[in-house]
Amino acid sequence: MGGVFVEVLQDVRAGLGPLGPEEAHDMIASLKAYPLLKGTRGQVGVNIRALESMLVGLSEALALCPEIAEMDLNPVLATPEGAVAVDARIRVQKGVV
Hints:
By secondary structure, the protein is α+β, with helices and mostly antiparallel strands.
């Protein structure tokens, strides 16, 4: 879920990187929207492992690149086949090493 739903439901999680697969899973599983992501009432869920992998990969990238001050992926589309960031905004801070 994203956009207004995240704001209204205050359904956000944060973690300290670098994240491992278990930490990424726990973050996703703690979301109010998790039952929808898993699939409910006959609906097929999204590929949770793809979301976990995305979080782990992003946290590794941030650990390797301290000059990244901010990163916003919006929207991230998750389907049964995988997950992809459609757009990204990255702010780099010069002089950080």
